[in-house]
Write a structure and sequence with these properties.
heterodimer, A: alpha/beta, Peroxisomal Thiolase, Chain A, domain 1, 11 strands, 36% helix, globular, B: Peroxisomal Thiolase, Chain A, domain 1
């Protein structure tokens, strides 16, 4: 018998999310206060009700005091967590387990990142001292390895491949255009995406997620307490994370058309949530579309598409708002923006809004089961997080 | 009698056509092209490549001494012999010294080799002439290497050698000078001519030899013409004078005469006599006789091989940037941190000799060295495993326009070795349009960057091109 897991043990009763944007006029403190107080108001609680908090940030501050300072929490435990781009999900995961254990009744999970203060485009993370021999390539470069490898394996011409990647970015921009909190709220024509300036060939700038500042927060309680706060909480069905041993850097059997961490983490989540056929049973998903080929590979890794068929599903519109399994209805990292520590919680925020029928123009038709997928690292080696959340108890 | 057992050479892939320099400044230029070190090359990296070419098929553990001759060492204080010894995986107690400053330190190092030992001589130079000057056009970059010893494997015996010290200030670069300075060229050429006349004829007579019995004279003097004058003055015909490589490489400092000697050996037949005359504040003179063993020498790239593989479209602006002669806007990325000296120290064996590990349990090669096997997860069951010289292919790649690189886009590839093992590394000496999945590549020793005054050496992949494959 597998481990018991967390299915239906905890629920989210309040959430908040700032707009993700180039917030030149907002500090880390401002973003934390805005997201936290939106969540408090949404849950109908006072800040002092929070018994413990988990703060996710990759590069915007150290220790729990990064949160307790601006919020003036009164000496409650605050833990700062970091798991690269999956940091926000990791804060949520830790908070859920703490509540499930019975140690706390009501906790806050919050993620924040301030990327636009560095003066550099893209993500620049501080590196520990090293011998300096590893090539210093960029984040888009490491994910762009996926594209030629995928095209080669499944026989796509460069032109076909380009169309598939552009369609993914086009979809996410379209979805983002319907979302007032997204960083980019404009539709972008396919042609413009396909001809955008090269960043890490074959990826252009329009294949990359938005570099943004932002924060997102969730209030978590045990399921039996949830209805004290609201009638429509979001239930946690599964939480899973897989940290990879670095096969992609070392082993020739890693072929850059699949990220094993994704496969393992999603399968564990499906087991925990009792999902047999993800494509049919899941109503919607927010996945880690840091770069367009990542989303393509994720479809197959998560079992949304058969191996080698993901690109056809893209072209058939399977993952678009009106499709069989809408992916990134809020615009995803591409259009909503990617403030590292906040993104995992932002994904959950969209699930929460959709379940409650609060997703505005992008509202899906009565979704029941949602999936969030958040990846930290590179295709060669990463942490991959998958959650399953639901509108109803099983 | 000591002699040359093996030779090798290295010429950087990038060639600058001299007319491009002339066009930039709106003035006349010399003909031909010069070899220019890429942004990731220096005298040490080129020297290692030449030595690898020289040691192809020999046991580097049998080498007793290594002499590194250069006027363009990466450091004024801190040696490079230990870098080179590690890169070539020479034995730990190999003796070594750097022969620096003199433009004939390459030939002098050959003369210093002991007969009853195996000595690896590496002559490598990467000098920079001041923009608009004669030297800028004339100087080229390159390296040559010889294994010197005795016995039946000797391909050319050094029958006799002679040196003369003759002080003159003709070409110099002080501790603080960025560029080489020259006195009026007539001074150097006159002194050179005088020394050649005084030394060469008696030297040949002493060896019962005359100019017409010499197949090739490898003569390196000041300027572009003095060597021909001096050779004629002591009785050599034009067809006896070894091509000075001016049109294809340029004057490669102390590596000039050694590279010409490699060229001569590439054409030589058993019984041929070669005379080497190298000038710089005096002369080194060497008489060599080629032996039957030369026909058994394994094929190598050498000067001929490296000359044929080139990018002759290098722009003058790239050259200026690579040599830090042009102050440019820095890339909008954080500056490269200097490498951690303790981390370098721990990694030298692995990183300089490109040695990974191979699992005793499942046989999987891996780089960098692992304690727990990536394949079977067995702990501490690894043997050292060297990847240098192994063929490999590009599994996937990217052209990174965002990464800070002196020659953007940075080409990064996932490289799978044909006998197992993978590395993700930069691809150098490669045009972005050339790279493709399945491309054959080999590892080449490079200076990744200099940060905080520390030169960081490691390996990159480069395409194996048809013409240079051995």
């Amino acid at each position: 018998m597998s481990r018991k897991g967390i299915s239906d043990k905890v629920a989210v009763i309040g959430m908040g999310c700032t707009r993700f944007a180039e917030h030149w006029d907002k500090s880390v403190d401002d973003l934390l206060v805005d997201a936290a107080y939106e969540a408090f108001a949404d849950a109908g609680i006072e800040p002092a009700d929070i018994e413990a908090a988990w703060l996710g940030t990759m590069i915007s501050g150290y220790a729990g005091i990064t949160l307790s300072g601006p919020l003036k929490t009164q000496f409650i435990p605050v833990t700062r967590v970091e798991n690269m781009c999956a940091t926000g999900s990791e804060a949520f995961r830790n908070a859920c387990y703490a509540v499930a254990s019975g140690a706390y009744d009501i906790v806050l999970a919050i993620g924040v990142e301030k990327l636009k203060d560095s003066g550099f485009s893209g993500l620049n993370s501080p590196k520990p001292p090293s011998d300096g021999t590893a090539p210093n390539f960029s984040a888009p470069a490491s994910f762009s390895f996926l594209a030629p490898a995928y095209f080669e394996k499944y026989g796509l011409s460069a032109k076909q491949g380009r169309e598939v990647l552009s369609r993914i970015a086009w979809k996410n921009h379209y979805n983002g255009s319907l979302n007032p909190k997204a960083q980019y709220r404009n539709e972008v024509p396919m042609e413009k995406i396909s001809n955008s300036p090269m960043v890490a060939a074959p990826l252009g700038i329009m294949d990359c997620s938005g570099v943004a500042d932002g924060a997102a927060a969730a209030i978590i309680v045990r399921t039996e307490d949830a209805h004290k706060y609201r009638k429509d909480p979001m239930y946690v069905k599964a939480l899973s994370i897989a940290a990879g041993p670095g096969d992609g850097r070392l082993r020739q059997d890693f072929d850059f058309t699949s990220i094993k961490e994704n496969v393992i983490s999603s399968q564990a989540a499906y087991r925990e949530a009792g999902i047999k056929d993800p494509r049919k049973e899941i109503s919607m998903a927010e996945v880690h579309d840091c770069f367009t080929p990542t989303e393509l590979v994720i479809y197959e890794d998560l079992g949304f598409s058969e191996r080698g068929q993901g690109w056809k599903d893209v072209l058939n519109g399977v993952f678009e708002l009106g499709g069989e399994l809408p992916v990134n209805p809020d615009g995803g990292l591409k259009s909503f923006g990617h403030p590292i520590g906040a993104s995992g919680l932002r994904m959950l925020y969209e699930m929460y809004l959709q379940f409650q029928g609060r997703a505005g123009k992008r509202q899906l038709d009565n979704p029941k089961i949602g999936l969030t997928h958040n990846l930290g690292g590179t295709p060669m080696q990463c942490v991959s997080f998958v959650s399953i959340v639901g509108k109803e108890l099983s | 009698m000591k002699g040359i057992i093996s030779y090798g050479a290295y010429i950087p892939y990038n060639r600058l056509q001299r007319k491009k320099i002339g066009e930039f400044f709106g003035k006349a230029a010399h003909r031909g092209e010069k070899a220019v070190a890429g942004y990731d090359e220096d005298s040490v990296s080129m020297g290692v490549e030449a030595a690898l070419d020289c040691l192809h098929g020999t046991n580097s553990q049998e080498i007793d001494a290594v002499y590194f001759a250069t006027t363009s060492a990466p450091y004024k204080e801190k040696g490079s012999v230990s870098t080179i010894a590690a890169a070539l995986q020479l034995k730990e107690n190999v003796r070594g010294i750097e022969a620096t400053s003199s433009l004939r330190s390459g030939t002098s190092a050959m003369l210093a080799a002991n007969e009853f030992e195996q000595t690896l001589v590496i002559a490598s130079d990467c000098r920079t002439g001041a923009p608009t000057g004669q030297n800028e056009q004339w100087f080229g970059d390159g390296a040559a290497s010889f294994l010197i010893g005795h016995g039946s494997e000797v391909i050319a015996n050094i029958i006799d050698a002679s040196s003369v010290q003759g002080e003159v200030v003709s070409e110099w670069r002080s501790q603080t000078d960025s560029f080489t300075q020259n006195w009026e060229e007539r001074l150097g050429s006159t002194v050179f001519l005088k020394q050649v006349k005084e030394v060469v004829t008696p030297f040949l007579e002493k060896n019962n030899c005359t100019a017409d019995a010499i197949n090739k004279v490898i003569i390196s003097g000041p300027g572009t013409r003095a060597h021909t004058q001096a050779a004629s003055a002591v009785g050599f015909q034009k067809n006896q004078i070894q091509d000075p490589l001016f049109d294809s490489v340029g004057a490669a400092g102390n590596a000039h005469a050694p590279m010409m000697l490699v060229s001569a050996l590439e054409e030589a037949k058993p019984g041929d006599k070669l005379l080497v005359v190298a000038f710089a504040e005096g002369l080194d003179v060497m008489l060599l006789e080629v032996t039957e063993a030369i026909s058994r020498l394994a094929k190598r790239k050498g000067v001929q091989g490296y000359l044929t593989v080139k990018n002759d479209q290098t722009s003058y602006s790239d050259y200026l940037k690579w040599r830090n002669l042009l102050e440019i806007e820095p890339p909008r990325r954080p500056e490269t941190d200097r490498p951690s000296a303790p981390a370098l120290y721990r990694g030298y064996h692995q990183n300089l000799s490109f040695t990974g590990s191979k699992c005793r349990n499942c046989g999987t090669p891996q780089f960098p060295k692992q304690r727990i096997c990536t394949q079977c997860q067995v702990k501490d069951e690894m043997d050292d495993y060297r990847f240098v010289g192994q063929s490999a292919k590009v599994m996937t790649y990217t052209l990174d326009h965002l990464a800070a690189s002196p020659a953007p886009p940075m080409i990064v590839a996932v490289v799978d070795f044909d006998k197992g093992g993978r590395i993700i590394c930069e691809v150098t000496d490669c045009h972005p349009k050339e790279i493709e999945i399945g491309m054959n590549v080999e590892m080449t020793f490079r200076r990744l960057y200099e940060a905080g005054g520390i030169s960081n050496y490691f390996w990159k992949a480069r395409p194996i091109r048809q013409k240079e494959s051995v």
